[in-house]
Design a protein that fits this description.
- It contains eleven helices and eleven strands.
- By secondary structure, it is α+β, with helices and mostly antiparallel strands.
- About 45% of the residues lie in helices and about 15% in strands.
- The protein starts with 12 loop residues before the first helix and ends with a helix.
- The protein has two domains: about 15-125, Phosphorylase Kinase, domain 1 (2-Layer Sandwich); about 130-339, Alpha-Beta Complex (Aminoglycoside 3'-phosphotransferase, Chain: A, domain 2).
- It is globular and about 65 Å long.
Length: about 350
């Protein structure tokens, strides 16, 4: 077993019991000999730890523990997103109720708890040895990720809608109310950061256009969304499997929203259309009704504006990951002009 640096978190007997129980539920009767925990370098808002579990038969499990309790968030992280978006039980229930039964190649979830009253909201999943999609230059891999997204949207659409309607999974709903609320917070942030000048006035002028886009997208059929399907949240492992992670913002909404996040970045229009076409091909392969490519491309562009405004609604002192570090106000104005 490779332990890397000296662990910064003490061995947790409670976590060892959780692993033992999880294995027993799968018919694996073997003792847990050692549990080593250390902070993950990929942590952002939620506490994320790498966990190495050594079993009595010599097997080593390489896991990732994500603690979603509000008091376990990084300093100031609770204020990053606008109020009402976060739900510590969402990701555990998404794994338990939706992803695990679907068999789509997401990291295997060994254990998930969503007990807010007991202060236990976490997931314990396989640690994926692979690259973030943002570090992969092969366009064929990006097309594979787009096709994976199409399969997700088709296969989980009905199940996720039922689970949300029954109150089994607290999915966000990307509807008019949500998007207009994010716009209002983005306006507050932009007015604070751009107290005068053309950029603030230009952003204020795009409000009617934004509202019209929200209304148009509300007519599109809703599906199950990753919610933050940025390339940094999509892993590509050594077996060539697409493995998206970080389902904290899972939602119901138009599929173009996830496609917009996946294809964010400095792609040429031709390559972005190629990726959108791969997504559409997957919808058709799954037997779903797919919109015309031209309409889908237009919807992805509209959703790119919504994503830029969403990121502008985040706390202005938030420091984004390197893959999100861009001038989102400039991005919003540019996309609005192109639309």
């Amino acid at each position: 077993m490779t332990r890397g640096t000296t662990p910064l978190v003490a061995v947790d007997e409670g976590l060892a019991r959780t692993v033992r129980l999880a294995l027993a539920r799968r018919g694996i009767d073997v003792a847990v000999c050692d549990v080593i925990r250390r902070p993950s370098p990929y942590a952002s808002t939620a506490r994320l730890e790498e966990v190495d579990v050594t079993l009595a038969d010599g097997t080593v499990l390489h896991l990732m523990l994500k603690d979603l309790r509000p008091d376990a968030l990084a300093s100031g992280a609770a204020a990053v997103r606008p109020a009402g978006l976060a739900n510590p039980a969402r990701e555990p229930l998404v794994y338990r109720q939706l992803l695990e039964p679907a068999g789509l190649g997401t990291p295997q979830c060994l254990w998930a708890e969503a007990d807010e009253e007991a202060g236990r909201c976490f997931v314990l999943v396989d640690r994926i040895d692979g690259l973030q999609l943002c570090d992969v230059g092969d366009a064929a891999v990006w097309e594979a990720a787009a096709r994976w997204l199409g399969r997700l949207h088709v296969r989980l659409r009905a199940r996720a809608s039922r689970a949300a309607a029954r109150g089994e999974v607290p999915l966000l709903v990307c509807d008019r109310q949500l998007h207009l609320g994010l716009l209002q917070q983005a306006l507050v942030n932009v007015r604070k950061s751009e107290r005068s000048g053309p950029r603030r006035r230009a952003f204020e002028r795009l409000v009617p256009r934004y509202e019209a886009i929200v209304s148009a997208l509300a007519e599109r059929p809703a599906t199950f969304l990753h919610g933050e399907c940025y390339p940094s949240n999509v892993l590509f492992d050594d077996d060539g499997t697409i493995r998206p992670v970080d389902w904290e913002m899972a939602a119901l909404g138009p599929g173009a929203f996830d496609v917009a996040a996946l294809t964010s970045g400095d792609w040429s229009p031709a390559v972005r259309v190629r990726l959108i076409a791969a997504y559409r091909d997957a919808l058709q392969a799954e037997g779903a009704d797919a919109p015309a490519l031209e309409q889908l491309v237009a919807d992805v562009e509209r959703c790119r504006l919504l994503l830029a405004v969403r990121l502008l609604s985040w706390h202005p002192e938030w420091t984004p990951p390197r893959t999100h570090a861009r001038d989102w106000l400039d991005e919003a104005l540019r996309i609005a002009d192109e639309l």
